[in-house]
Write a structure and sequence with these properties.
Elements: E1 4-10, H1 14-25, E2 32-39, H2 45-55, E3 59-64, H3 69-79, E4 84-87, E5 93-94, H4 98-103, E6 110-120, E7 123-127, E8 133-136, H5 137-152, E9 168-171, H6 187-196, E10 201-213, H7 225-241, H8 246-268, H9 276-289, H10 297-308, H11 310-322
Parallel strand pairs: 1-2, 1-4, 2-3, 6-10
Antiparallel strand pairs: 4-9, 5-10, 6-7, 6-9, 8-10
Helix pairs in contact: 5-8, 6-7, 7-8, 8-9, 8-10, 10-11
Length: 323
């Protein structure tokens, strides 16, 4: 039976961790190497990990200084021995057939993706495919880009194609020369296209077996200047990753334009600071790529205002706040 490594980065999730670990231990596929990475968590997470390691010999525990989720995942990658790798975030949980369903479709040249439930307070949104979808790497990237464009435009799409690594199943060879970027937020965005470009096929399976718990105090919910700058870098890396596909490159540029405008407007609203060089970079990027959104009236106008009439943009949002 093929060994599967499940890597769980852990930091300040004492109230969620037991449910997460129990869901992994309950898997119908039993040949697992479960790597719990205590990323210097200041609460009781480290002790909880050690207690579970005594209960089940499939569990390996790493205690390390806090370095962020990328560092924690990398620590797991450095010691894992499974032929396939799955990631589970420590505040989420998985259905008992999570690994079994993946193994039914796993191949060395394939990334398998399952559906997931987005759980926020009392609201649950299911993101899943209705049937088995086997697509090329190029089409998988296109689907991820399309979902992001739709979502940022306010048109929700509930397919399972995401930048996330936690609802996917990878052959270990994909990580032979790749590690998550140390100290960066939005590490999944940095990695997703690079990993996709290593496979030949992307398979979305019609099983909703991952449960993503959206916490108000989670890292992804915190908005700060560093997180914004990291996401800008991540989006630019995605653009660079797809530069051999002209249509995907245009999609990547459109996403960056939409995101950069959103960032600049939040800066105008006073949500965070941008340095003069950062503002200059955003304006330069918009100026060079405005033609990408020339047929989109909304973003064409916003580009113009950011580039040539920032004062009008400031007055507009100041008036909206007063109103």
């Amino acid at each position: 039976m093929i060994l599967v490594s499940v890597i769980i980065p852990i930091y300040k999730v004492e109230d969620y961790l037991c449910k997460c670990i129990e869901s992994v231990l309950a898997q119908t596929y039993e040949n697992l190497e479960i790597i719990l990475v205590d990323d210097g968590s200041p609460d009781g997470c480290g002790a909880i990990c050690d207690e579970y390691a005594i209960i089940d010999n499939r569990i390996r525990v790493i205690h390390k200084e806090n370095g962020g989720i990328s560092s924690a995942r990398n620590a797991g990658l450095d010691i894992c021995t499974g032929e396939y790798i799955a990631f589970v975030d420590s505040d989420d949980y998985i259905n008992e057939d999570y690994i079994t369903k993946f193994m039914d479709y796993a191949k060395p040249n394939t990334i398998v993706c399952c559906g997931y439930k987005y759980i926020s307070n009392d609201r649950i949104v299911v993101h899943s495919s209705e049937k088995i979808m086997t697509v090329s790497t190029r089409d998988a990237i296109d689907a991820i880009q399309s979902k992001y464009i739709q979502n940022i435009s306010g048109l929700s799409k509930t397919n399972p194609f995401t930048n996330r690594v936690w609802n996917k199943f990878y052959h270990r060879s994909y990580f032979d020369e790749i590690r998550f970027p140390y100290g960066k937020s939005y590490e999944d965005v940095y990695m997703s296209f690079e990993l996709l470009l290593k496979c030949k096929w992307f398979v979305a399976i019609p099983y909703t077996t991952y449960n993503y718990v959206n916490r108000n105090d989670s890292i992804t919910k915190s908005i700060n200047r560093k997180a914004i700058i990291d996401q800008i870098d991540a989006r630019l890396k995605q653009e660079n990753d797809v530069n051999k596909f002209p249509d995907l490159l245009n999609n990547a540029k459109k996403i960056n334009i939409m995101f950069f405008i959103m960032v600049y407007i939040d800066y105008i609203k006073g949500k965070f600071c941008l340095t003069w060089n950062e503002r200059k970079f955003i304006k330069s990027y918009l100026k060079q790529n405005t033609n990408i959104v020339k047929n989109d009236f909304k973003y064409n106008i916003k580009c113009f205002l950011v580039l040539y009439n920032e004062s009008a943009l400031k007055l507009f949002y100041r008036f909206r706040n007063i109103k």
